[in-house]
Write a structure and sequence with these properties.
Radius of gyration: 22 Å
Shape: globular
Structural class: alpha/beta
Strand content: 5-15%
Distance between the termini: 66 Å
Strand order of the largest sheet: 1-3-2-4-5
Largest sheet: 5 strands, mixed
Helix content: 40-55%
Number of strands: 11
Number of helices: 23
CATH topology of the domain at 303-429: Rossmann fold
Length: 431
């Protein structure tokens, strides 16, 4: 047996799995693909076999790449298997062993090393999309079906993107805001890369909710991508470097909270301590950082500084982000906030915990599988027949918007972020 491969694959953690099968009903890919190799216990057994030399890394590739990483299995596991660590180790080994063409290497290096970690590139993406939308190019493209020629079903996702702010509006944001003195709390806002590029207005609404709650809001200049997409693609070393950059950026001042509004980003941020060896300086710093990371819903409930004055006469259902629910363990706060909105009726789906199929870029690279999972989710949504689907993660939001379109329900249903619903209710400071 290859001892190095065993260490790389978190082999010792695979023995915690007793193959009981409790994870099977919780796993979206097992439900839609109906194959044991696409279940959590099947993947863990395959990792063990590869580590023992009984299967090849190539055998591992397809089942691991088709895993959503939703972590639903961890919520029902009776032996507390560290599935996330096993999954990431498998992705890292696959990435290390995979033979890639030079063009693919160049594209991956650009995307993971330059594009996602760069505020300038993220802003450029937002600027370009704004120009595309505001100049009339979008209408022309849709009229003649030009975007349908783009790869990876990009035309479907392009159609559900929100309206982008102008470059002037993006540049107008300061690095620090405070209205109430003394402030009730000092918070650092983790703006995210995709979140700030594509859902800039939602980020602005998040900041406004914090300000109206009495908080001082700071945008640390040197913050960067959380590293979730890197980790999900097996780029462990790059993910570690991004973690270090973020820890350093948020150490420049002392904060009561490090706030995020993206379930996937928040999940990665609280997992930073796992990236470093216990007893090291970086592990200590990562632990201190992670201890302050909170979802916006948790912070708003903690501060309890808002009253909602404008009725929102709508029936909605709440689609929890898998990483918010299963990793950050945030379940009650979003619902508590929605229940405070006057006029809003909240109806729960039969299986709100079932993944929507977004999972970072899963719905782009595994489109057909993601759509099968989305169809199951939308069947549950349609059973509630809401006016709106409320979620708490950018990927989930785009995926649910796409689900509404696929159901032909765009005239009666919309998908929105939690903070946008709260802002619609005209929140005002309690005092």
């Amino acid at each position: 047996m290859n001892s190095l491969l065993q260490e790389q694959l978190s082999y010792d953690k695979t023995f915690d799995c007793v193959q009981c099968g409790y994870c099977l009903p919780a796993c979206p890919t097992y439900e839609t693909m109906e194959r044991e190799t696409h279940s959590p216990r099947g993947r863990i057994n395959l990792v063990k076999m590869v580590a023992e030399g009984k299967a090849s890394v190539e055998d591992l590739k397809e089942p691991i790449e088709k895993c959503l990483g939703c972590m639903a299995c961890t919520t029902v596991c009776p032996t507390n298997v560290q599935y996330g660590e096993i999954l990431e180790s498998a992705k890292h080994v696959i990435d290390e062993h995979e033979e890639k063409s030079r063009p693919r290497k160049l594209v991956e290096n650009f995307m993971f090393q330059r594009f996602f970690p760069s505020t300038a590139w993220m802003d450029s993406l937002g600027h370009a999309t704004w120009l595309y939308q505001s100049s009339g190019l979008k209408k022309v493209s849709q009229r003649f079906g030009l975007t349908k020629r783009a790869p990876l079903h990009i035309h479907e996702f392009e159609a559900v993107l929100p309206e982008m702010p102008s470059p002037k509006r993006r540049k107008s944001r300061a690095g620090r805001y405070v209205r109430k003195r003394p402030a009730t709390a000092k918070v650092a806002f983790f703006k995210g890369c995709i979140m700030d590029s594509v859902f800039y207005e939602t980020n602005q609404n998040t900041m406004e909710l914090l300000l109206r709650s009495g908080a001082e809001v700071v945008f640390p200049d040197q913050q960067t991508c959380c590293g979730a997409l890197h980790a999900h693609s097996g780029k462990v070393d790059a993910s570690v470097e991004l973690a270090k950059r973020n820890i350093e950026a948020f150490e420049e001042e002392s904060f009561d909270y490090i706030v995020n509004n993206a379930g996937g980003c928040g999940a990665r941020l609280i997992e930073y301590p796992h990236l470093f060896e216990k007893g090291t300086d970086w592990h200590s710093r990562a632990s201190a950082f992670a201890a302050n990371v909170k979802d916006i819903s948790e912070v708003l409930v903690d501060l309890d500084g808002l009253r909602f004055e404008q009725p929102v006469p709508r029936t909605v259902t709440y689609q929890p982000s898998c990483h918010l629910r299963n990793v950050q363990k945030v379940t009650d706060a979003p619902v508590a906030l929605l229940e405070k909105v006057p006029g809003l009726t909240l109806k729960q789906m039969d299986r709100p915990e079932f993944c929507c199929g977004s999972a970072g870029i899963y719905n782009i690279v595994n489109y057909e599988e993601a759509m099968d999972i989305l169809d199951v989710k939308m069947q549950d949504v349609c059973g509630v027949d809401p006016d709106g689907i409320v979620t708490s993660n950018p990927g989930c939001l785009l995926q649910m918007k796409l689900g509404v379109v696929r159901e032909g329900a765009g005239d009666r249903m919309e998908a929105v972020h939690l903070v946008d619903v709260l802002m619609e209710a005209d929140p005002q400071p309690k005092t």
